[in-house]
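Notes continue from the previous slide.

Worked example: a multi-chain complex. Inputs as given:
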Amino acid sequence: NAGVTQTPKFQVLKTGQSMTLQCAQDMNHEYMSWYRQDPGMGLRLIHYSVGAGITDQGEVPNGYNVSRSTTEDFPLRLLSAAPSQTSVYFCASRPTSGSGSPLHFGNGTRLTVT
Amino acid sequence: GQQLNQSPQSMFIQEGEDVSMNCTSSSIFNTWLWYKQEPGEGPVLLIALYKAGELTSNGRLTAQFGITRKDSFLNISASIPSDVGIYFCAGHQGAQKLVFGQGTRLTINP
């Protein structure tokens, strides 16, 4: 059982470049989300989705776009990368949108923007 | 956004010692969760708390949901080397958003 799979594991971008961080889950989870992790700041929610075709903003959405065309996939797009977006990005999912079920996390994508 | 204040930020202990860390907030949370993160991996859920006053154990780990619903603590008894990692508290802000504390980095000297 693969769980939550994130690709790539590492990425280096130049300022202004665009890229998509991939996230896929094989658990048929309705809820998926993206977090960024920065030293001393814990994990901060970027965007989330409660089901295919539905997305919403989290705490730090600026500079990021998401879409949810299928239940399995929830890609995160950086349209014009900035050094402030250097971070470790985690995708997470859970069975329902309610607070009763725990999040399952992927192993992260470490992004460096120069 | 909602902030969870987690302390201490880091701990350096000897193997076998007990560990205590806590999380506080200025607002009420309906759920408190404790996660552990090891290097190169995503956080993994340790304990989930759903009721004010609830005390839950998972092996050597014990966590409590504060009566005021604004705080939670996690204790680890008789620490072992594999307890090393970063521990995060988290709380639900509504049903959709999970807010995390800043993390407590635990280092254990054998």
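Summary box: The first strand of chain B starts at residue 5 and ends at 7. Chain B has a mean pLDDT of 92.
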